[in-house]
Design a protein that fits this description.
Blueprint (H helix, E strand, L loop, with lengths): L3 E4 L2 E3 L7 E2 L1 E5 L2 E6 L1 H5 L7 E4 L4 E4 L1 E3 L4 H9 L2 E2 L6 H14 L6 E6 L12 H5 L7 E5 L4 E4 L1 H7 L11 E5 L5 E7 L3 H4 L7 H17 L2 E9 L1 H12 L6 E7 L15 E3 L2 E3 L1 E5 L28 H13 L3 E6 L2 H18 L5 E4 L5 H9 L3 E4 L2 H5 L1 H7 L2 H4 L5 H6 L4 E3 L11 H10 L16 H8 L1 H6 L17 E4 L16 E6 L2 E2 L7
Parallel strand pairs: 1-6, 2-7, 8-15, 9-10, 10-11, 15-16, 16-18, 16-19, 19-20, 20-21, 21-22, 22-23
Antiparallel strand pairs: 1-4, 2-3, 4-5, 7-24, 11-12, 12-14, 13-14, 17-18, 24-25, 25-26
Length: 528
Protein backbone atom coordinates (compact mmCIF):
# COMPACT_ATOMS: atom_id res chain seq x y z
CA UNK A 1 0.00 0.00 0.00
CA UNK A 2 1.22 3.51 -0.84
CA UNK A 3 1.31 5.34 2.50
CA UNK A 4 2.64 8.75 1.42
CA UNK A 5 3.00 10.71 -1.79
CA UNK A 6 4.99 13.91 -2.25
CA UNK A 7 4.40 15.80 -5.50
CA UNK A 8 4.93 19.17 -7.23
CA UNK A 9 8.56 19.31 -6.16
CA UNK A 10 11.96 20.10 -7.63
CA UNK A 11 13.55 16.74 -6.83
CA UNK A 12 17.28 16.43 -7.45
CA UNK A 13 17.48 12.68 -6.96
CA UNK A 14 21.29 12.16 -7.22
CA UNK A 15 20.35 9.01 -9.14
CA UNK A 16 22.31 9.22 -12.40
CA UNK A 17 19.69 7.10 -14.18
CA UNK A 18 16.92 9.58 -13.29
CA UNK A 19 18.50 12.83 -12.07
CA UNK A 20 15.28 14.87 -11.76
CA UNK A 21 11.67 14.20 -10.85
CA UNK A 22 8.68 16.00 -9.38
CA UNK A 23 7.08 13.30 -7.20
CA UNK A 24 7.74 10.12 -5.25
CA UNK A 25 5.82 7.58 -3.20
CA UNK A 26 6.68 5.93 0.13
CA UNK A 27 5.67 2.65 1.75
CA UNK A 28 6.99 1.24 5.02
CA UNK A 29 9.71 3.86 5.30
CA UNK A 30 11.10 3.27 1.81
CA UNK A 31 10.71 4.99 -1.53
CA UNK A 32 8.76 2.77 -3.90
CA UNK A 33 8.29 5.00 -6.97
CA UNK A 34 9.83 8.20 -8.37
CA UNK A 35 8.68 10.15 -11.42
CA UNK A 36 6.26 12.74 -12.75
CA UNK A 37 3.31 14.05 -10.75
CA UNK A 38 0.66 12.35 -12.83
CA UNK A 39 2.24 8.89 -12.71
CA UNK A 40 2.94 8.98 -8.96
CA UNK A 41 -0.44 10.49 -8.04
CA UNK A 42 -2.12 7.69 -9.96
CA UNK A 43 -0.76 5.28 -7.33
CA UNK A 44 -2.64 6.86 -4.41
CA UNK A 45 -5.38 5.06 -2.52
CA UNK A 46 -7.98 6.39 -0.12
CA UNK A 47 -5.52 5.75 2.69
CA UNK A 48 -2.56 7.55 1.10
CA UNK A 49 -1.34 10.80 2.68
CA UNK A 50 -0.64 13.26 -0.15
CA UNK A 51 1.63 16.32 0.31
CA UNK A 52 2.10 19.21 -2.10
CA UNK A 53 5.78 20.23 -2.09
CA UNK A 54 4.90 23.63 -3.60
CA UNK A 55 7.99 23.54 -5.82
CA UNK A 56 10.36 23.17 -2.89
CA UNK A 57 13.69 21.51 -3.65
CA UNK A 58 14.06 17.93 -2.44
CA UNK A 59 17.45 16.28 -1.90
CA UNK A 60 18.47 12.95 -0.36
CA UNK A 61 19.31 13.25 3.31
CA UNK A 62 22.91 14.40 3.71
CA UNK A 63 25.48 11.84 4.77
CA UNK A 64 28.43 13.16 6.79
CA UNK A 65 31.05 10.47 6.16
CA UNK A 66 33.36 11.54 9.00
CA UNK A 67 31.93 13.31 12.05
CA UNK A 68 32.71 12.44 15.66
CA UNK A 69 29.11 12.20 16.74
CA UNK A 70 29.63 11.62 20.44
CA UNK A 71 32.31 14.32 20.62
CA UNK A 72 29.92 16.85 19.07
CA UNK A 73 27.54 15.94 21.88
CA UNK A 74 30.35 16.00 24.43
CA UNK A 75 30.94 19.69 23.76
CA UNK A 76 27.22 20.24 24.29
CA UNK A 77 27.17 18.47 27.64
CA UNK A 78 30.32 17.58 29.61
CA UNK A 79 33.18 19.56 28.04
CA UNK A 80 34.03 23.27 27.96
CA UNK A 81 33.95 24.53 24.37
CA UNK A 82 36.93 26.78 23.60
CA UNK A 83 36.45 27.00 19.85
CA UNK A 84 36.80 30.58 18.68
CA UNK A 85 38.77 31.96 21.64
CA UNK A 86 41.08 34.72 20.37
CA UNK A 87 43.84 34.72 22.98
CA UNK A 88 45.38 32.71 25.78
CA UNK A 89 43.93 35.27 28.17
CA UNK A 90 40.42 34.64 26.89
CA UNK A 91 41.00 30.90 27.16
CA UNK A 92 42.20 31.31 30.76
CA UNK A 93 39.13 33.35 31.71
CA UNK A 94 36.77 30.77 30.24
CA UNK A 95 38.55 27.99 32.11
CA UNK A 96 38.41 29.95 35.37
CA UNK A 97 34.71 30.74 34.98
CA UNK A 98 33.95 27.12 34.12
CA UNK A 99 35.89 25.82 37.13
CA UNK A 100 34.06 28.21 39.47
CA UNK A 101 30.67 27.14 38.08
CA UNK A 102 31.55 23.45 38.43
CA UNK A 103 33.25 23.03 41.82
CA UNK A 104 32.21 19.36 41.93
CA UNK A 105 34.41 18.40 38.95
CA UNK A 106 37.62 16.69 39.99
CA UNK A 107 39.19 17.17 36.54
CA UNK A 108 38.51 20.19 34.30
CA UNK A 109 38.31 19.25 30.62
CA UNK A 110 38.07 21.57 27.63
CA UNK A 111 38.57 21.49 23.89
CA UNK A 112 38.84 23.76 20.90
CA UNK A 113 41.61 26.38 21.10
CA UNK A 114 43.47 27.24 17.90
CA UNK A 115 46.71 29.13 18.44
CA UNK A 116 46.59 30.56 14.89
CA UNK A 117 43.81 32.86 16.15
CA UNK A 118 45.98 34.24 18.99
CA UNK A 119 47.85 37.54 18.41
CA UNK A 120 51.22 35.93 19.19
CA UNK A 121 50.24 32.49 17.75
CA UNK A 122 51.84 30.90 20.83
CA UNK A 123 50.86 27.43 22.01
CA UNK A 124 49.74 27.51 25.65
CA UNK A 125 51.73 25.59 28.26
CA UNK A 126 51.09 24.13 31.68
CA UNK A 127 52.09 27.48 33.22
CA UNK A 128 49.19 29.23 31.44
CA UNK A 129 46.77 26.71 32.94
CA UNK A 130 48.39 26.78 36.39
CA UNK A 131 47.95 30.57 36.52
CA UNK A 132 44.18 30.16 36.73
CA UNK A 133 43.62 26.62 38.07
CA UNK A 134 46.22 24.94 40.25
CA UNK A 135 44.09 23.03 42.77
CA UNK A 136 42.89 20.24 40.42
CA UNK A 137 43.88 18.66 37.11
CA UNK A 138 43.15 20.52 33.88
CA UNK A 139 43.57 19.20 30.34
CA UNK A 140 42.81 21.24 27.24
CA UNK A 141 42.52 19.56 23.86
CA UNK A 142 43.53 21.55 20.78
CA UNK A 143 40.81 22.01 18.15
CA UNK A 144 42.25 19.18 16.02
CA UNK A 145 42.18 16.70 18.96
CA UNK A 146 45.77 15.69 18.15
CA UNK A 147 47.40 17.80 20.89
CA UNK A 148 46.74 18.30 24.59
CA UNK A 149 47.94 20.82 27.17
CA UNK A 150 47.92 19.67 30.82
CA UNK A 151 48.53 21.61 34.01
CA UNK A 152 50.87 20.50 36.80
CA UNK A 153 48.10 18.72 38.72
CA UNK A 154 47.15 16.73 35.62
CA UNK A 155 50.78 15.71 35.07
CA UNK A 156 50.96 14.61 38.67
CA UNK A 157 47.69 12.66 38.46
CA UNK A 158 48.87 10.95 35.28
CA UNK A 159 52.25 10.06 36.78
CA UNK A 160 54.17 11.95 34.10
CA UNK A 161 57.66 13.25 34.84
CA UNK A 162 60.75 14.38 32.95
CA UNK A 163 61.69 10.72 32.70
CA UNK A 164 58.47 9.62 30.99
CA UNK A 165 59.14 8.32 27.48
CA UNK A 166 56.79 9.26 24.66
CA UNK A 167 55.12 6.29 22.94
CA UNK A 168 55.80 5.53 19.29
CA UNK A 169 54.15 8.19 17.14
CA UNK A 170 53.86 10.82 19.86
CA UNK A 171 55.75 13.71 21.44
CA UNK A 172 56.21 15.08 24.94
CA UNK A 173 57.29 18.70 24.49
CA UNK A 174 59.81 20.33 26.83
CA UNK A 175 61.24 23.78 27.45
CA UNK A 176 64.89 24.39 26.57
CA UNK A 177 65.85 23.70 30.18
CA UNK A 178 64.31 20.23 30.02
CA UNK A 179 61.17 21.11 32.01
CA UNK A 180 57.89 19.64 30.83
CA UNK A 181 55.69 22.08 28.91
CA UNK A 182 52.60 20.01 29.63
CA UNK A 183 52.25 19.74 25.83
CA UNK A 184 51.57 16.32 24.28
CA UNK A 185 50.98 15.40 20.65
CA UNK A 186 49.48 12.42 18.80
CA UNK A 187 49.79 9.06 20.58
CA UNK A 188 51.30 10.74 23.66
CA UNK A 189 48.00 12.46 24.45
CA UNK A 190 46.82 9.08 25.75
CA UNK A 191 49.28 9.43 28.64
CA UNK A 192 47.05 12.22 29.96
CA UNK A 193 43.57 11.51 28.63
CA UNK A 194 43.85 7.83 29.50
CA UNK A 195 43.96 8.75 33.19
CA UNK A 196 40.62 10.56 33.18
CA UNK A 197 37.51 8.70 34.31
CA UNK A 198 35.72 7.08 31.39
CA UNK A 199 32.21 8.28 30.60
CA UNK A 200 29.34 6.03 31.66
CA UNK A 201 26.93 4.51 29.13
CA UNK A 202 24.27 6.95 30.32
CA UNK A 203 26.59 9.91 29.71
CA UNK A 204 27.52 8.63 26.23
CA UNK A 205 23.83 8.21 25.45
CA UNK A 206 23.12 11.79 26.50
CA UNK A 207 25.91 13.06 24.22
CA UNK A 208 24.74 11.03 21.22
CA UNK A 209 21.13 12.14 21.61
CA UNK A 210 22.19 15.78 21.90
CA UNK A 211 24.31 15.57 18.76
CA UNK A 212 21.71 13.59 16.85
CA UNK A 213 19.13 16.35 17.32
CA UNK A 214 21.49 18.96 15.90
CA UNK A 215 22.49 16.80 12.93
CA UNK A 216 18.84 16.27 12.02
CA UNK A 217 18.29 20.03 12.06
CA UNK A 218 21.11 20.35 9.53
CA UNK A 219 19.58 17.74 7.25
CA UNK A 220 22.07 14.99 8.12
CA UNK A 221 20.29 11.64 8.13
CA UNK A 222 23.39 9.41 8.04
CA UNK A 223 26.74 9.86 9.75
CA UNK A 224 30.00 8.00 10.25
CA UNK A 225 31.57 8.16 13.70
CA UNK A 226 35.16 7.42 12.65
CA UNK A 227 37.04 6.32 15.80
CA UNK A 228 34.91 4.44 18.32
CA UNK A 229 36.19 2.64 21.41
CA UNK A 230 34.66 -0.70 22.52
CA UNK A 231 32.57 0.78 25.36
CA UNK A 232 31.01 3.30 22.99
CA UNK A 233 30.28 0.59 20.42
CA UNK A 234 28.18 -1.15 23.07
CA UNK A 235 26.29 2.08 23.75
CA UNK A 236 25.50 2.47 20.05
CA UNK A 237 24.25 -1.13 19.92
CA UNK A 238 22.07 -0.60 22.98
CA UNK A 239 20.58 2.60 21.57
CA UNK A 240 19.92 0.85 18.26
CA UNK A 241 18.12 -2.03 19.98
CA UNK A 242 16.03 0.50 21.94
CA UNK A 243 15.07 2.44 18.80
CA UNK A 244 16.85 5.61 19.90
CA UNK A 245 18.94 6.11 16.76
CA UNK A 246 16.99 8.23 14.30
CA UNK A 247 19.89 8.90 11.99
CA UNK A 248 21.82 5.99 10.44
CA UNK A 249 25.21 5.54 12.09
CA UNK A 250 28.28 3.89 10.62
CA UNK A 251 30.55 3.29 13.63
CA UNK A 252 34.21 2.71 12.76
CA UNK A 253 36.03 0.87 15.53
CA UNK A 254 39.44 2.15 16.62
CA UNK A 255 42.15 -0.50 16.40
CA UNK A 256 45.06 1.20 18.15
CA UNK A 257 44.14 3.74 20.87
CA UNK A 258 46.42 6.70 21.64
CA UNK A 259 49.34 5.62 23.79
CA UNK A 260 48.46 1.91 23.65
CA UNK A 261 51.22 -0.63 22.99
CA UNK A 262 48.80 -3.36 21.94
CA UNK A 263 45.92 -3.32 19.49
CA UNK A 264 42.34 -3.76 20.57
CA UNK A 265 40.59 -6.95 19.45
CA UNK A 266 38.56 -6.76 16.28
CA UNK A 267 34.93 -5.90 17.07
CA UNK A 268 31.97 -8.05 16.19
CA UNK A 269 30.36 -7.10 12.93
CA UNK A 270 26.92 -5.55 13.26
CA UNK A 271 24.31 -4.44 10.76
CA UNK A 272 20.81 -3.01 11.16
CA UNK A 273 18.87 -0.25 9.38
CA UNK A 274 20.31 2.32 11.83
CA UNK A 275 23.72 0.97 12.84
CA UNK A 276 26.60 -0.60 11.01
CA UNK A 277 29.99 -1.82 12.25
CA UNK A 278 32.20 -3.29 9.54
CA UNK A 279 35.29 -1.05 9.36
CA UNK A 280 38.31 -0.42 11.61
CA UNK A 281 40.32 2.78 11.99
CA UNK A 282 44.03 3.65 12.02
CA UNK A 283 45.89 6.96 12.28
CA UNK A 284 48.94 7.42 10.05
CA UNK A 285 49.70 10.99 11.09
CA UNK A 286 48.34 14.05 12.83
CA UNK A 287 46.55 17.26 11.94
CA UNK A 288 47.59 19.82 9.34
CA UNK A 289 46.27 22.80 11.28
CA UNK A 290 48.61 21.96 14.18
CA UNK A 291 51.66 20.99 12.07
CA UNK A 292 51.56 17.31 13.08
CA UNK A 293 50.52 15.95 9.66
CA UNK A 294 53.54 14.00 8.40
CA UNK A 295 55.32 15.86 5.60
CA UNK A 296 58.56 15.23 3.69
CA UNK A 297 59.50 18.91 3.80
CA UNK A 298 59.33 21.13 6.92
CA UNK A 299 56.41 23.47 7.47
CA UNK A 300 56.95 27.09 6.49
CA UNK A 301 59.39 28.94 8.76
CA UNK A 302 59.89 25.79 10.82
CA UNK A 303 61.96 22.66 11.17
CA UNK A 304 58.89 20.59 12.01
CA UNK A 305 57.78 17.85 9.61
CA UNK A 306 54.88 16.46 11.63
CA UNK A 307 54.49 13.01 13.17
CA UNK A 308 54.26 9.68 11.38
CA UNK A 309 52.31 7.60 13.88
CA UNK A 310 52.55 4.13 12.33
CA UNK A 311 55.47 1.83 11.63
CA UNK A 312 54.83 0.04 8.35
CA UNK A 313 55.19 -3.61 9.37
CA UNK A 314 53.04 -3.15 12.49
CA UNK A 315 50.38 -1.29 10.49
CA UNK A 316 50.38 -3.96 7.79
CA UNK A 317 50.05 -6.77 10.35
CA UNK A 318 47.04 -5.22 12.10
CA UNK A 319 45.38 -4.16 8.85
CA UNK A 320 45.85 -7.61 7.31
CA UNK A 321 44.21 -9.23 10.34
CA UNK A 322 41.21 -6.98 9.82
CA UNK A 323 41.00 -7.63 6.07
CA UNK A 324 41.26 -11.37 6.58
CA UNK A 325 38.29 -11.13 8.96
CA UNK A 326 36.31 -9.20 6.32
CA UNK A 327 36.67 -5.70 7.77
CA UNK A 328 37.32 -2.69 5.60
CA UNK A 329 40.08 -0.28 6.62
CA UNK A 330 39.82 3.48 7.19
CA UNK A 331 43.10 5.31 7.78
CA UNK A 332 43.65 8.94 8.70
CA UNK A 333 46.33 10.36 6.36
CA UNK A 334 46.95 14.02 5.55
CA UNK A 335 50.63 14.75 4.87
CA UNK A 336 52.43 13.48 1.78
CA UNK A 337 54.62 11.15 3.86
CA UNK A 338 51.54 9.63 5.49
CA UNK A 339 49.74 9.31 2.16
CA UNK A 340 52.68 7.35 0.71
CA UNK A 341 52.81 5.02 3.72
CA UNK A 342 49.09 4.29 3.60
CA UNK A 343 48.99 3.74 -0.15
CA UNK A 344 52.01 1.43 0.08
CA UNK A 345 50.30 -0.72 2.73
CA UNK A 346 46.95 -0.59 0.92
CA UNK A 347 48.69 -1.76 -2.26
CA UNK A 348 50.01 -4.82 -0.41
CA UNK A 349 46.58 -5.45 1.09
CA UNK A 350 45.00 -5.12 -2.35
CA UNK A 351 47.43 -7.65 -3.81
CA UNK A 352 46.60 -10.10 -1.01
CA UNK A 353 42.88 -9.59 -0.33
CA UNK A 354 41.56 -7.60 -3.30
CA UNK A 355 39.04 -5.91 -1.01
CA UNK A 356 37.47 -2.76 -2.41
CA UNK A 357 36.26 0.38 -0.62
CA UNK A 358 39.01 0.76 1.91
CA UNK A 359 39.04 4.42 2.92
CA UNK A 360 41.57 7.19 3.38
CA UNK A 361 40.31 9.91 5.70
CA UNK A 362 41.23 13.55 4.84
CA UNK A 363 43.62 13.00 1.86
CA UNK A 364 45.53 16.25 2.39
CA UNK A 365 48.46 15.88 -0.01
CA UNK A 366 48.06 12.92 -2.38
CA UNK A 367 50.62 12.48 -5.15
CA UNK A 368 49.60 11.60 -8.68
CA UNK A 369 50.85 8.08 -7.99
CA UNK A 370 48.62 7.91 -4.89
CA UNK A 371 45.59 9.00 -6.91
CA UNK A 372 46.26 6.46 -9.66
CA UNK A 373 46.49 3.66 -7.10
CA UNK A 374 43.33 4.80 -5.27
CA UNK A 375 41.41 4.73 -8.55
CA UNK A 376 42.80 1.30 -9.48
CA UNK A 377 41.95 -0.30 -6.12
CA UNK A 378 38.67 1.60 -5.60
CA UNK A 379 39.94 3.30 -2.43
CA UNK A 380 37.49 5.90 -1.13
CA UNK A 381 38.58 9.49 -0.42
CA UNK A 382 36.75 11.00 2.57
CA UNK A 383 37.40 14.75 2.60
CA UNK A 384 36.28 17.92 4.41
CA UNK A 385 35.92 21.04 2.23
CA UNK A 386 34.87 23.08 5.28
CA UNK A 387 38.48 22.84 6.50
CA UNK A 388 39.37 25.49 3.91
CA UNK A 389 37.08 28.01 5.60
CA UNK A 390 37.56 27.21 9.27
CA UNK A 391 41.25 26.23 9.27
CA UNK A 392 42.46 28.16 6.24
CA UNK A 393 44.30 30.71 8.38
CA UNK A 394 46.44 27.90 9.79
CA UNK A 395 47.15 26.58 6.32
CA UNK A 396 48.27 30.01 5.12
CA UNK A 397 50.51 30.40 8.17
CA UNK A 398 52.11 26.96 7.89
CA UNK A 399 52.30 26.26 4.13
CA UNK A 400 54.18 28.08 1.40
CA UNK A 401 52.30 28.96 -1.79
CA UNK A 402 53.16 25.80 -3.72
CA UNK A 403 51.72 23.45 -1.11
CA UNK A 404 48.86 25.81 -0.29
CA UNK A 405 47.65 25.50 -3.89
CA UNK A 406 47.52 21.70 -3.57
CA UNK A 407 46.03 21.23 -0.11
CA UNK A 408 42.92 19.00 0.03
CA UNK A 409 42.68 18.69 -3.78
CA UNK A 410 39.05 17.64 -4.16
CA UNK A 411 38.85 18.41 -7.88
CA UNK A 412 41.98 16.36 -8.59
CA UNK A 413 40.51 13.47 -6.62
CA UNK A 414 37.32 13.56 -8.68
CA UNK A 415 39.19 13.87 -11.95
CA UNK A 416 41.24 10.80 -11.02
CA UNK A 417 38.00 8.80 -11.01
CA UNK A 418 38.01 8.24 -7.24
CA UNK A 419 34.77 8.08 -5.26
CA UNK A 420 34.67 11.23 -3.15
CA UNK A 421 32.73 11.39 0.12
CA UNK A 422 32.19 14.69 1.92
CA UNK A 423 32.19 15.24 5.67
CA UNK A 424 33.19 17.78 8.33
CA UNK A 425 35.24 16.04 11.05
CA UNK A 426 33.24 18.05 13.61
CA UNK A 427 33.89 19.06 16.31
CA UNK A 428 37.29 19.84 14.73
CA UNK A 429 35.20 22.47 12.94
CA UNK A 430 32.30 24.32 14.49
CA UNK A 431 30.07 24.33 11.39
CA UNK A 432 28.86 20.88 10.33
CA UNK A 433 26.05 22.16 8.11
CA UNK A 434 26.39 20.25 4.79
CA UNK A 435 25.28 23.34 2.86
CA UNK A 436 28.31 25.18 4.24
CA UNK A 437 30.52 22.33 3.09
CA UNK A 438 29.03 22.50 -0.39
CA UNK A 439 29.61 26.24 -0.41
CA UNK A 440 33.25 25.76 0.63
CA UNK A 441 33.81 23.17 -2.10
CA UNK A 442 32.53 25.67 -4.67
CA UNK A 443 34.38 28.71 -3.28
CA UNK A 444 37.64 27.47 -1.69
CA UNK A 445 37.82 30.60 0.50
CA UNK A 446 38.97 30.91 4.10
CA UNK A 447 37.11 32.88 6.77
CA UNK A 448 38.87 36.08 5.68
CA UNK A 449 37.90 35.62 2.04
CA UNK A 450 41.27 34.43 0.74
CA UNK A 451 41.16 31.81 -2.01
CA UNK A 452 43.08 28.61 -1.26
CA UNK A 453 43.74 26.21 -4.10
CA UNK A 454 41.37 27.92 -6.53
CA UNK A 455 42.00 25.27 -9.19
CA UNK A 456 40.47 22.68 -6.84
CA UNK A 457 36.97 24.21 -6.85
CA UNK A 458 34.19 21.87 -7.93
CA UNK A 459 30.65 22.34 -9.22
CA UNK A 460 27.47 22.36 -7.18
CA UNK A 461 26.38 19.09 -8.81
CA UNK A 462 29.61 17.33 -7.83
CA UNK A 463 29.44 18.69 -4.29
CA UNK A 464 25.83 17.57 -3.81
CA UNK A 465 26.65 14.09 -5.08
CA UNK A 466 29.68 13.83 -2.78
CA UNK A 467 27.55 14.71 0.27
CA UNK A 468 24.87 12.17 -0.60
CA UNK A 469 25.60 9.28 -2.96
CA UNK A 470 29.39 9.61 -2.65
CA UNK A 471 29.17 9.19 1.11
CA UNK A 472 26.73 6.28 0.79
CA UNK A 473 29.23 4.51 -1.48
CA UNK A 474 31.99 5.20 1.06
CA UNK A 475 29.98 3.27 3.66
CA UNK A 476 29.08 0.51 1.18
CA UNK A 477 25.45 1.60 1.63
CA UNK A 478 24.58 2.72 -1.89
CA UNK A 479 21.97 -0.03 -2.15
CA UNK A 480 19.77 1.55 0.53
CA UNK A 481 20.50 5.31 0.66
CA UNK A 482 22.29 8.20 -1.04
CA UNK A 483 19.71 9.03 -3.71
CA UNK A 484 15.96 9.32 -4.13
CA UNK A 485 15.09 6.17 -6.03
CA UNK A 486 12.95 3.09 -5.61
CA UNK A 487 14.11 0.74 -2.85
CA UNK A 488 16.03 3.36 -0.85
CA UNK A 489 15.16 4.52 2.66
CA UNK A 490 12.91 7.57 2.54
CA UNK A 491 15.50 9.90 4.08
CA UNK A 492 15.32 13.33 2.45
CA UNK A 493 15.41 17.06 3.06
CA UNK A 494 13.40 20.03 1.80
CA UNK A 495 14.80 23.44 0.88
CA UNK A 496 12.81 26.51 -0.04
CA UNK A 497 15.49 27.55 -2.53
CA UNK A 498 16.59 26.10 -5.85
CA UNK A 499 20.23 25.01 -5.60
CA UNK A 500 20.78 26.32 -9.12
CA UNK A 501 20.71 29.83 -7.61
CA UNK A 502 23.82 28.95 -5.58
CA UNK A 503 25.84 29.13 -8.79
CA UNK A 504 24.98 32.82 -9.03
CA UNK A 505 25.26 33.73 -5.38
CA UNK A 506 26.96 31.00 -3.41
CA UNK A 507 27.11 33.26 -0.34
CA UNK A 508 23.33 33.13 -0.01
CA UNK A 509 22.38 29.50 0.69
CA UNK A 510 19.21 29.10 2.71
CA UNK A 511 19.11 26.38 5.38
CA UNK A 512 17.31 23.08 5.12
CA UNK A 513 13.67 23.67 6.09
CA UNK A 514 12.58 20.08 6.87
CA UNK A 515 14.30 16.74 7.43
CA UNK A 516 12.64 13.34 6.96
CA UNK A 517 13.85 9.91 8.09
CA UNK A 518 11.94 6.79 7.05
CA UNK A 519 9.40 9.17 5.52
CA UNK A 520 8.70 10.76 8.92
CA UNK A 521 9.39 14.44 9.53
CA UNK A 522 11.89 15.39 12.20
CA UNK A 523 9.95 17.38 14.79
CA UNK A 524 12.87 19.63 15.79
CA UNK A 525 12.78 22.99 14.07
CA UNK A 526 15.56 23.25 11.51
CA UNK A 527 17.56 26.36 12.34
CA UNK A 528 20.82 26.09 10.39
Amino acid sequence: MIEKIFYNGNILTQDISKPAASAFAISRGKIVAVGRDEEILSLQTTQSQVSDLKLQTVLPGFNDAHIHLWKVGNLMTYLLDLRGVRSIGEMQQKLLDYARKNPELDWIQARGFNEALFPDKRMPTKHDLDEVISDRPVSVIRVCAHQVIANAKALEAAGISNYTVAPQGGEIKKFNNGELKGHFTETAIGLVLGKIRSYTPAEYREMILAAQGELLKAGITSATDPAVMPDLLEVYKSMDRNGELKIRVNAIAIRLPDGAKQALPLPEKYSSPHLKIDTVKFFADGGLSGKTAAMYQPYKNSEEKGVLRLEKSFFKKLAAEAQEAGFRIATHAIGDAAMDLVCEVYQELWNEFHMEKNRIEHVGFPSQKNLEFMHHANVIAVMQPVFIRELGKNFRDYLEEERLDKVYPIRSVLHAGINLAFSTDAPVVNDFNPLSGIQCAMQRRDAEGNEIGADEKISMDDALYSYTMGSAIANDDESNRGCISSGKWADFVLLDQKPETWQKNVNDINPVSETYCNGERNQSKNSF
